[in-house]
Amino acid sequence: MGKWIYRILCLLTLLVFVAIFLQEKYRLVDIEALSGAVEKTEKPIFSFASYRSGEYQAALEKFSKENFGFRETFIRCYNQYLWKFYKSTNTPDVVAGKDGWLYEPCFVQEYYEGLMYKYTDDVNVIQQKLRTEAKRLYFIQEILKQYGVQMFVMIEPGKERIYPEYLPDNIWYEREKKFSAADYYPLVFDTLGVNCINMCAWFESQKGKVDYPLYPQTATHWSNIAALHVTDTLIRYMEKLGNTNLHNLSIGEPYICETFDPDKDLEKLLNLQFSILDIPNKYAEFSIDNDTTASKPNLLSIGDSYFWNISYHINLDDIFSSHHFWYYNSTVYYDDRYTSTSQLDVLSELLNNDYLMLSYCTAQLYDMPNMFSANALISLCFDDERIAEKIESIKRGMNASEEWLASLQQKADEQGRSLDEIMYDDARYLIFMDPEQYFDELSGDAVPQCRNSRIDEILSRK
Predict the structure, then answer these.
(1) Phi and psi for 198 in degrees, rounded to 5?
(2) Backbone dihedral angles phi then psi of residue 393, each to the nearest 5 degrees
(3) Rama region for 399: left / alpha / beta (φ>0; ψ in -120 to 50; rest)
């Protein structure tokens, strides 16, 4: 009997290896790809030189690990085992909370310790950083208002602010939480007069009062139904800010439905074999009015991924003539002309929109607005010639410092670029990192009166 069991086990093992080989070679079964970022590994080409050095074997081993048959199924089964028995995840991008709730690590850190420590241990330093950004935004707001462009900031709540009761117990962070950008920015904005709609406060006031989830259990962003109400609130805020009539949403009563994207974006990153949630979620139908007197303005949004939940189900083309989105002031979406903000004429983009919205959540506020404010402020206030003069002035300082020049030469050698290119890029970087240091007009508290001479030209074409 024991021999038969042994033979059967050997046969089954052999069949498994054959199945893995056939799946790897011929892809006989169509298996859903794993979620998350994937860096494709090319199969190495054999050569005697790479074989003797061991390079070929290492590359082949890496390729085999990432391309063997039924790899996706094995990974999902292992992840399911971790989740089922230990409520643990196999990805650093997701933290398991209580009762099956999921969070991104940055929100857990922001709640227990505060993300201030990524930048400094000194509260005064981080406060000064945020005050500087707030003042720049105020300047931009007031300058753009002169040309019919309304700017405002939307502070988005993080999941940790609304549902802290499901956060995992703190076992990682020992430092005391001293500061929160989500609490500090509204105070500074109010003092300076920066237009701000604080969704943190609104969500906190609605928790327990609404009959739908503000955040899904298995997602990092606000729920689809909450995004509808956020959009409705935004439109009404923009109407008041711009003293104009826009198309409005009409939101129906919540209904129960199986959870669908993007209300399970974190769960998808876990790559489990079975879904975490056995219960349905709540959603709502909506419509956009056909008011013939409503205007359709141009909207420019700069911020984080919360915007996706607004644009995921709502056809923003029915509300706005254009709604370009600069993801972290880097990648450009909903714009057929560009893919990166590095390709843009910032001054022209600002003046050719009717509304400018900066939208960042609690964990991303520390980096808001990803160097946009300095770039926008310089573009609005100074001609290219003035900027070039400042760059040349900094380059003269570089040439006058042997130590600075040596470090720049080393950098040029490492990157295979000319010294002049490196000097230009570093000088320009310094200006946009700290424009107040290089332009006296920006260092005070009064809105600067200087303007880029190209503004009139751009407005004439609008």
Answers:
(1) -95, 95
(2) -65, -40
(3) alpha
Compute φ and ψ for 461, nearest 5 degrees.
-95, -5
* Distance of alpha carbon 226 from alpha carbon 230, whole angstroms: 6
- Domain boundaries, given as residue ranges, for the chain: 2-73, 95-379, 381-460
Per-residue pLDDT of 380-411, as tens digits, reads 999 999 999 999 999 999 999 999 999 999 99
Residue 43: DSSP 8-state: P
- Express each pLDDT in 176-190 by its tens digit: 999 999 999 999 999
Please state, in angstroms and as integers, the Cα–Cα distance from residue 265 to each residue in 112, 222, 268, 450, following that order.
23, 11, 5, 46
pTM of the model: 0.89
Residues 6+ away with beta carbon under 8 Å from 124? none
Residue length of the chain: 462
CA distance linking residue 383 with residue 34, whole number of Å: 49
Per DSSP, the residues of 432-448 read HH-HHHH-GGGSSSSPP
Among the listed residues 139, 144, 151, 242, the one whose alpha carbon sits nearest the alpha carbon of residue 455: 144
The rounded distance, in Å, linking the Cα atoms of 260 and 281 is: 9
Integer Cα distance of 436 and 442 in angstroms: 5
Q: Is the dihedral of CA 345, 348, 353, 358 positive or negative?
A: positive
Nearest to 43 by CA among 59, 27, 31, 26: 59
Tell me the C-alpha distance between 427 and 275, whole Å.
52
Query: Identity (one letter) of the amino acid at 38?
Result: V
Q: Which residue has the tokens 């199924």?
A: 73
**Are the C-beta atoms of 92 and 102 separated by less than 8 Å?**
no
Residue whose token pair is 């573009």: 379
Torsions phi, psi for 82 (to 5 deg): -60, -40
Q: How many CA atoms lie within 13 A of 453 on its CB side?
A: 5
